[in-house]
């Protein structure tokens, strides 16, 4: 019997669950896993994967394992959630034989997950949010469509992980059924839900604990001053109250933060880590670079190129030295092997409240609409063949995802829309991708906006190409053997 099936058999997973509650046993197991991962990383040929890329990915994995150990030592994960982690996450997400079988069937790696925003409605109105004003009028996916998407991606691709965004996801309901009811129908799956935290009262916290497969990810902008400045007075205190409710019930949670010119230093500080990870008990953090396309877009809020370089060094220090799982989809591009949008293998695509299908949550240009796809008698698999998606995947492959490792272009500048806007704009126009908001239409047509975005990308490459050449493409044996803790991606 295969290893993953052994691990996820009920008697074995129950035994593992009991062992994981013992601090000494868990510590030993995790140390052996880390040792094995490091040995494997050192043995990978640079012709299979760039050595420093492999070490970056290793350090992220180790940070997540150490984070799990931290929250378990504090008993912040209930036994119900531990069972979910062992069965759904370990068996269906991490050791996923279904995805390997799908790859063999289709001849290519399928997406690992989808991000779905079932509603654009929100009780807050944050500056720069990618949700447009029109989304606040009540548009949403119906329950049957959301449910069908989940069933199809699991059946076709072996995808058991779903990211839920918004709007505010906990406002969504259809015919009396809400997000928790949906999660109950898909107990073999894991859901991570981006939330502003204001909806999680005692009743919802209890329901989340009972369902056992939903992990809220709280949006913060820093501490109280930064969060309330963007989200509204009193929001931060409501977030902390929601975190307390989840801690008491053993529901693991994370945080997300938007890095801007004004907040990036706070987000990557030791004080930020101490407060949210050690004091509040967060397990993970996703950092999003501000993208100037949403409501009241302002390019001046973008993290300047010189500061973004500093930010990369600060984030990797937190991951390596403090073993904090903090991932930035731009600055951590090496950990994801570049851009993961448009249904790339092990990547994802995005469906919003109107059913519009987009490469990612930060590219508001639709390739199609899920309602139209289903009306034509097609399914999710057909989405991967959309010209806009294929064009972006071609760019990803040419940039490095499908090239020999020594020929990989700079994954420190991995984002098509942010770091290579001229290529992205060409794809939008060539494939006739539809702007879903007036702001998106104006952005793709505005020469001044185009020039500023292209200038930003070129400056990032000027600053980071030397670091890529030095720390990732340097083939000297001494460089390749260096410890990931000593690696320096900062020029």
Q: How would you concisely characterize the structure shown here?
A:
With 491 residues, the chain is an alpha/beta fold.
Task: Say how many strands there are.
Answer: 14
Structural class: alpha/beta
Ranges where pLDDT stays below 50 over 5 or more residues in a row are 1-13, 475-487
**Beta-strand residue percentage:** 5-15%
Give the terminus-to-terminus CA distance: 49 Å
Q: How can the largest sheet be summarized? A: 10 strands, mixed
Share of helical residues: 40-55%
Rg over C-alpha atoms, rounded to the nearest angstrom: 22 Å
Mean pLDDT comes to 87
The shape is: globular
Main β-sheet, spatial strand arrangement? 9-8-7-6-5-2-1-10-11-13
* Number of alpha- plus pi-helical segments: 22
Model description:
This protein has 491 residues and is of the alpha/beta class. It is built from 22 helices and 14 strands. The N and C termini lie far apart (49 Å). A hairpin with a 4-residue loop joins strand 10 and strand 11 (356-358). Helix 14 crosses helix 21 (447-471). The longest helix is centred in the last third of the chain and has 25 residues, at 447-471.
């Amino acid at each position: 019997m295969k290893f993953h099936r052994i691990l996820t058999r009920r008697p074995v997973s129950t035994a593992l669950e009991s062992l994981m509650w013992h601090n000494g046993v868990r510590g030993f197991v995790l140390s052996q896993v880390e040792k094995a991962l490091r040995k494997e990383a050192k043995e990978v040929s640079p012709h299979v994967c760039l050595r420093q890329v492999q070490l970056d990915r290793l350090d992220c994995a180790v940070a997540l394992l150490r984070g799990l150990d931290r929250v378990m030592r504090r008993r912040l994960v209930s036994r119900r959630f531990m069972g979910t982690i062992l069965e759904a996450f370990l068996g269906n997400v991490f050791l996923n034989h279904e995805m390997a079988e799908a790859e063999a069937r289709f001849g290519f790696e399928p997406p690992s997950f989808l991000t779905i925003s079932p509603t654009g409605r929100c009780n807050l109105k944050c500056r720069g949010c990618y949700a447009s004003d029109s989304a606040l009028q009540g548009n949403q996916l119906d329950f049957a469509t959301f449910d069908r998407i989940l069933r199809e991606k699991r059946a076709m691709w072996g995808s058991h992980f779903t990211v839920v965004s918004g709007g505010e996801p906990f406002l969504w309901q259809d015919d009396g059924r809400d997000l928790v009811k949906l999660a109950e129908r898909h107990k073999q799956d894991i859901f991570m839900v981006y939330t502003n935290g204001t909806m999680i009262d005692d009743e919802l916290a209890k329901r989340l604990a009972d369902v056992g497969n939903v992990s809220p990810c709280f949006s913060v902008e820093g501490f109280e001053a930064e969060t309330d400045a963007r989200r509204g007075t009193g929001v931060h205190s409501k977030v902390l109250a929601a975190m307390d409710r989840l801690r008491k019930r053993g529901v693991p949670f994370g945080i997300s933060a938007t890095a801007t010119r004004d907040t990036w230093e706070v987000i990557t500080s030791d004080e930020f880590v101490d407060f949210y990870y050690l004091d509040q008990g967060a397990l993970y953090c996703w950092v999003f670079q501000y993208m100037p396309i949403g409501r009241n877009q302002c390019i001046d809020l973008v993290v300047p190129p010189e500061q973004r370089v500093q930010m990369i060094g600060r984030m990797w220090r937190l991951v390596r030295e403090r073993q904090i799982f903090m991932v930035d989809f731009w600055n951590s591009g090496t950990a994801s092997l570049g851009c993961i949008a448009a249904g790339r293998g092990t990547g994802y695509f995005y469906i919003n409240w109107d059913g519009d299908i987009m490469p990612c949550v930060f590219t508001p240009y639709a390739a199609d609409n899920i309602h139209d796809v289903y009306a034509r008698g097609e399914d999710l698999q057909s989405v991967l063949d959309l010209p806009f998606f294929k064009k972006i995947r071609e760019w990803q492959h040419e940039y490095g995802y499908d090239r020999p490792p020594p020929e990989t272009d700079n994954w420190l500048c991995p984002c098509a829309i942010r770091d290579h806007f001229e290529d992205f704009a060409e794809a939008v126009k060539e494939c006739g991708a539809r702007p879903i908001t007036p702001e998106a239409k104006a952005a793709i047509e505005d020469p001044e906006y185009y020039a500023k975005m292209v200038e930003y990308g070129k400056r990032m490459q000027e600053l980071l190409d030397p670091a890529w050449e030095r720390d990732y493409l340097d083939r000297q044996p001494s460089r390749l053997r260096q410890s990931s803790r000593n690696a320096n991606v900062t020029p």
